[in-house]
Amino acid sequence: MTNIRKVAELAGVSVATVSRALKTPDVVAPGTRDKVLAAVEQAGYRPNLTAVQFRSQRTRNLVVLVPTIANTFFARVIGGIQEAAQRRGYGILLCNTLGDERTERAYAGMVSTRQADGLIQLRAYDPFTASDGKARPPMVNACEVLDAAPCPTVRLDNRAAARAVTEHLLTLGHRRIGMIKGPRNSPLTRDRLLGFQDALAVAGLLPDESLVCPGDFTPSSGYRAAGDLLSRADPPTAIFCENDEMAMGAMRRLKEAGLRVPEDISVAGFDDIAFASFCDPPLTTIAQPAEEFGREAVALLLDSIDGRDATADEHRIMPFELVVRESTGPVA
Fold this sequence. Notes:
By secondary structure, the protein is α/β, with parallel strands linked by helices. The chain folds into three domains: about 5-45, 434 Repressor (Amino-terminal Domain), CATH 1.10.260; about 60-155 and about 290-315, Response regulator (Rossmann fold, 3-Layer(aba) Sandwich), CATH 3.40.50.2300; about 160-290, Response regulator (Rossmann fold). The chain has eleven helices and twelve strands. The strands form three sheets. A six-stranded parallel sheet has the order 2-1-3-4-5-11, with helices on both faces. A four-stranded parallel sheet has the order 7-6-8-9. The radius of gyration is 24 Å and the shape is elongated.
């Protein structure tokens, strides 16, 4: 049977270095770690993970709660989480919660019962119940963040980003600007609406509630909402959608109505998903570093697990960029 000494011999390192590379790979130089992993593969070595976990008191697994894996922005965030976790020697346990609190609490229980070492929550909900004075399990809240999160957070300044999109439309001469919102209870929806209203106020415009339609971040909701906006007696000359998927649904409905984008009506989105630049026409949107959200969340969570400096007061605000493409133009 292949043992750890054979791996050490093949890699040209000590047994202790092999052990560190397998148990705590982040403390081993990348070149050395790669040599050890290659030797492990060559030798067919399979460490006793149960024994390793027992000695280290770590499972080296992280729970990730995502509201829906169907959303392409969340898929990119998960990619960043997986990449960063693997680099540090961790696996991820992914739960597609669909926003169900009971499901989220059940998966959070894996951390409380030491079946996983920590949790990343991508929705504005705390799945850990009152702990009766016990220390909170390690958790990071990313993307859609609680207002008073009891843990480190990674978020975007959604209000400022929405204001930037609206200001862009205003500079093109648009004054009747429609908005298609996200889910009613989402902080993202609230903050993006506030940014939209901020820009209108600075321009001396009063918000027209008839031009604000509900959506749920899906293309079908953007399609329906665009139809509602077109039915108004005085429809908008531009539509700001709170995410790109709703913007794509909206553009399809506008084209079915015989309208040209942007000659007859402008459309802007939010997120800069991969499809945004391949729309017809390419979509003006807000780019945010989705993969970096995931990497930052893992870094903060592992700091918390390792007892380093990540505290509930640590909040990372990620950068955004207004990406102007061909879906927005001067008011007709």
